[in-house]
User: Fold these one by one.
Assistant:
Number 1:
Amino acid sequence: MDKPKVVLGVSGGIAAYKACELLRRLTESGHDVRVVPTGSALHFVGAATWSALSGHPVRTEVWSDVHEVPHVRIGQEADLVVVAPATADLLARAAHGLADDLLTNTLLTARCPVVFAPAMHTEMWEHPATRENVATLRRRGAVVIEPAVGRLTGVDTGKGRLPDPAEIFETCRRVLARGVAAPDLAGRHVVVSAGGTREPLDPVRFLGNRSSGKQGYALARTAAARGARVTLIAANTGLPDPAGVDVVRVGTAVQLREAVLKAVPEADAVVMAAAVADFRPAAYAAGKIKKKDGQEPEPIVLVRNPDILAEISADRAREGQVVVGFAAETDDVLANGRAKLQRKGCDLLVVNEVGERRTFGSEENEAVVLGADGSETPVPHGPKEALAETVWDLVASRLA
Ligand code: PMT
């Protein structure tokens, strides 16, 4: 089989050096990559580097090898175009359909999915001109990844950092897998919770659960690759931030509830994949609880935590908002799942079987997605990302 053809566009920002790692990941995972830098990108990383790493000649303008008509052919032949970093200038030229170098010509002739990974200073990212250009590109079907927050070129920090190349690669992989299908969550804001809450007993100990956050992160990554703006509320996860996703970190169920209630008024869909503790210790000991010689330990008194899923399902923050829950069951899986769907009042409930070494922390999952309309969608054993795609298919059809 022919290798998928990827065009890596690089525009002139300091983050251009990070595109070398993206290029490496793409070539090593079996993609045929043509690098098309802008003239200014070559101030940061030279043509020799791009050429050596990609195994192809590198051009910036349309006047070399004219007999091969590169200004049309490169875009026409591509299965995916990814521009990383995409500067404010490049986004503006792409949004306005300019074609003054090889990269912008390629963007105009490409009929495949296009991903932009912007990187620039916060002021440039927030400028109304850039906001409008990004909105235009998204409206036309491009996936524009939200920049990360962190250290910028100088001592300043803020939104505008190029996301981790490994995460941009993950987005590209997912967009390529979807092919020319339009990013059906473009213009949508989705909220996903992931991980497991920890309910502290004292400064040292907590009541927790085995959730790693992998299923929730797969949902967040997949939604971003389908064009959504994603808020990921992560409880005690040790996973890298997915590219283009706003991550809010929480610890306890009460903090998770606060973060969810803050995010839902703007959300088109909410997916609660986090494992939320139903109970928390009634009291928190300010100092480490000590064992006392000859005495039995004091029993731990628990109180109920708020049921976040039931609350947001009963009191919809927006008309038409789709609310999805997960049910983690160890026995009578489907029967318990059906009863839980009734109790929680959500639109969809993803019922998965869990155990000490089942589903938690694993790369795979298997589930049945129950709909409040009586539908049942089985998802066979496979990567957590495949289950995530099915969940978004069902959400997208309800949003439409
Ligand atoms: O993170 P991984 O290692 O990838 O594992 C994935 C997973 C097993 C954690 C995930 O697939 C899953 O099943 N998540 C839901 C875990 C859970 O809390 O299930 P539950 O059946 O106890 O709760 C039902 C639903 O109510 C869930 O959507 C939960 O987020 C929500 N809930 C629960 C309690 C509570 N107080 N408030 C809630 O909102």
Number 2:
Amino acid sequence: MELIDVVTVDGPAGAGKSATTRELAARLGIEYLNTGAMYRAIALQAIRLGLNLEDVDALERVAKESTLESREGRTFLNGEDVTDAVRAQEISQAVRYPANAPSVRAILVEAQRRIGLERPIATEGRDQGSVVFPDARCKFYLTASPEERARRRLGELRSRGEDEPLDRILEQIIARDKSDMEREVGPLREPEDAIRVDSDGKSIEQVVAEMERAARERLAFLQ
Ligand code: DC
């Protein structure tokens, strides 16, 4: 198998994938791709069109008819920068519909491969090393305990002036892990050839430094 210059970062929600992958890409001088944002963009468009989120054919049409692009780590839906819009709580609730629809996944996987074959990227998601880029030169599985992820999530909520009991957040995290891992197509999996990075008790800086060292050893264009 011919290997390609792609860095994949998979792992559960709240492990710190976005912050670390974005910083890692900047340090390596390559593009950052946030594939969760692509699923979120489909959910956003479906909501805007007033579609029934349970209608998988309608979701497939949205995925087919939408142009999704990634430039400088930002996500564009039909030319509009939706990077911030897709973070809304409403979209977090709705994204499981497109993420669980096999026909939508097929279209987005194809789009992600096209982006990764054009130029070196660091891409984060759930299935990047297992399904989308099995031939990536450098794969990470970034994880942290559910308790640590719940504490981080609470910190984020509080910084936005929101609050929620820690045990409720923990319950939601455990439920989300289960749904991510039990999805029939593109479930969260730890690739056998991935480097496992546990971010418990580590700063973003420490995690990125660990990842950068490993990536520099592996990427051909840096040799
Ligand atoms: O990482 P995130 O929270 O932005 O991801 C949003 C949702 O999309 C989450 O429920 C998992 C799903 N997802 C996926 O199924 N496959 C990916 N490659 C990325 C995200």
